[in-house]
Amino acid sequence: MFYKKLLTSLMLTSILSLALTPLLALAEEQPQSTEATEISREFSDSSILAESLPELILPSESDVSETASQSEENAAESYEELPSSESTEQAESHSLDSEEDEEDTYLSPIITEDNQSSLGSSLKTGMRSFSRADTRLAWDQSKLPRTDFIDVSSHQGNISVAEYNNLKKYGVSGVVVKLTESTSYRNPYAKNQIDNAKAAGLKVSAYHYSWFTTKKSAEAEAKYFAAYAKELNLGPDTVMVNDIEEPKILDKVKTADSVAFANALIKTHKFNQVIHYSSLSWFSSGNGPLDIPQLGGAASTWIAQYLYQPSKDNLLHQTASAWQWSSQMLFPGEKRVLDVNIDYNGRFSKKVTLTPQGPYIPFNKYVNISNANDSVYSNFNWKERYKSSTIHKKTYLAKGKYDHINGNVYYSIYDSKDNWMGYINSQSTTITDAHGSYIPLNRYVSITRDNNPLWSNFNWKQKGSSKGIYNKTLLAKGEYRHYNGSTYYSLYDSKNVWLGYIHNGATKLTTANGLLSAHSQYVTVKSPNYKTWADFSGTQQGTTTNMNNKTYLVKGANHTFKGPVYYSLYDAKGKWFGLLNKNATKPAAPQGPYQSFNKSVTITNKNYALWSNFNWKRKPNSNGLYNKKFIAKGLYKHTNGSTYYSLYDSKDVWRGYINSASTKLN
């Protein structure tokens, strides 16, 4: 088997040499690009080779024996040899017949020192060719972005304390060391690189070059990574990096697998911080497969993007945790060309004193409190300020946020009067606009004010006013709890016509039967065929049989959602006669309507009174009419309970109104 592999390797080397010779010759003839644009043409196809990349300055033989053909740009992958030719073909393509099979049997590539990859290798492979002068950067604090930390692998070999101390002179205060790749490779120089970095006072983080394409393989690689980290005495607060950039797995990359990798490190292996590294084109912000929000937000990413002319005045990806802005930094006194990075929030370097909650990040977005079962905190020692139920469904301004090492994001929220409300887990909120989130309500409301505006939108374009719907009962299908502290109902009538948004202060919650609103009016019952009601639950009070043509005082009215209005009827003595449909009545004066009578009556009460009107003004010259006959042409059934005749004498002269009780029919 050894000779078979050796023969295959020699044949591939010969073919590759023949194929590359004209390409390399052609590359040398190309003119050098001088345009000042981004170098971030990040190729994901590993078949595209770097065109005449400058030779790297490698460690001395005493540190590590590596040749240019073994550099990270030209590393070739090999896979675990399987028992049959069919299995070998599967391993070389790193794929299985089905996702289900892959979950059951994870075939990890066999990684050795000869074919291992380092952080950013896929991006470096895809870079366009430059001369040594254009590619390598000399440290210049006045022009270039900060060099907060570097990242190293076995390609850098052993690094002494003195070398680290030299780098510190130029702003380097952290180092990210490659520990593992797949489930078969460990960086043999990691212990030296870590121990000497610690001795020099640098902050140490670690990265793993990932090959996983399933949840199971992600968890397996996380376990392998964590085991070596613990063996090297890296504590739980160490930043652990998922270096997800291998071109061969691009078409299988799923955000969920990187989340599983991070969760395994945090929940199973008890490391508190995980960052995801890749080039811009792999993240969703660059239209790649890795969804930044699912990974935990921009602060959970470390983005590689190289510029032709990097500048401290053009800092990219400032919402990310860090930006790798060059792979070609040559520091004074150094032989190695190093990757350099700017640390935006202090996770990788000692530029910022890192607290568990991380640095304050400006946010300035409105949020609606969607979870009533959480806590709002006064500080990150988890002192509870109050329960989120106190502010449930209300809208606040999240001025800032914190990406805590526990994996959660916490918002610092304020009300409309700029009062600080506390810290709340972002998962208990919903990002919204100033008017807040739509909250289903489906409650009936009565309109209690006749001068309130109805709004078309929350830019305060007026749709109408409450004058036309005053005292009516409407359906509030939903509500908005605005940042300004007010609640607005979305109103609909019984025909499902939207009427607009109204301030809830102009309404009162009720049932479909509406509220009993104040109403003072005299009405006369005009039909004997209606029922009167004691309430809206179906309890009958009586009928209008004995109320017909009588006049009552309306003291209240219910405007129901479906349309009918019910009057609450009283007589002059304050006796309640129940609720009656308005349609069974007609407006009247207190005396009620005139009713034709035309009967002869005799005044039988010596103390009779004749009235000129129903304001009770006495009729003059009405004495001496006792025991005389008159014609009662009409009558009135007054709300005071009495009936009054309209009297005429034999000459058809009107003599006034008299209480029927002072007369008798002839």
From TrEMBL:
Superkingdom classification of source: Bacteria
UniProt cross-references to SMART domains, sorted A to Z: Glyco_25 (SM00641)
Residue span of region Disordered: 59-104
Keywords, sorted A to Z: Glycosidase, Hydrolase, Signal
Any Pfam family hit: Glyco_hydro_25
EC category name: hydrolase
PROSITE patterns given in the database record: GLYCOSYL_HYDROL_F25_1, GLYCOSYL_HYDROL_F25_2
EC annotation from Swiss-Prot or TrEMBL: 3.2.1.17
Gene Ontology molecular-function annotations: lysozyme activity
GO biological process: carbohydrate catabolic process; cell wall macromolecule catabolic process; peptidoglycan catabolic process
Catalytic activity: Hydrolysis of (1->4)-beta-linkages between N-acetylmuramic acid and N-acetyl-D-glucosamine residues in a peptidoglycan and between N-acetyl-D-glucosamine residues in chitodextrins
InterPro entries noted in UniProt: GH, Glyco_hydro_25, Glyco_hydro_25_AS, Glyco_hydro_fam25_subgr
Region forming the signal peptide: 1-27
Similarity field: Belongs to the glycosyl hydrolase 25 family.
Protein name: Lysozyme
Organism encoding this protein: Vagococcus salmoninarum
